[in-house]
Amino acid sequence: MKRLFPLALVALLLRPALAAERQNVLETLGAALASDRAYDAPERERLLAAIRERFADYGLQVVTPERQPAIPVVLAVITEGSFDEAPPDRMADVAFAAYQAMQRGAPAEEVQGIALYGYRKKIAGDTIAAWANGYRQLVEARVPDPVAADLVNFAMNRDLTVNDFDTLKWALASGVKEGYDAKQYSTFLLGSMLLGKSGPGTISGDAKAEFRRAAAEHRAPRLPKYEGSFSPKPPPPPVYEAPVSPNPPADVAQTPAPAPVKPKLASPYPIDTTPPLMKPRSIKRATAAAPPGEAPADSPKMAALWPGLDATYHSYLGTPYVWGGVSHSGIDCSGLTSNTYGENRIKIPRVSRDQYHIGSVVADSGLRDGDLVFFNTLGAGVSHVGMVVDAKTRRFVQASSSKGVTVSDLDGKYYKTRYLGARRVVP
Question: Going from the N-terminus, what domains does the chain have, and what CATH number goes with each?
Answer without folding.
Answer: 7-144 (no CATH), 169-216 (no CATH), 240-424 (3.90.1720.10)
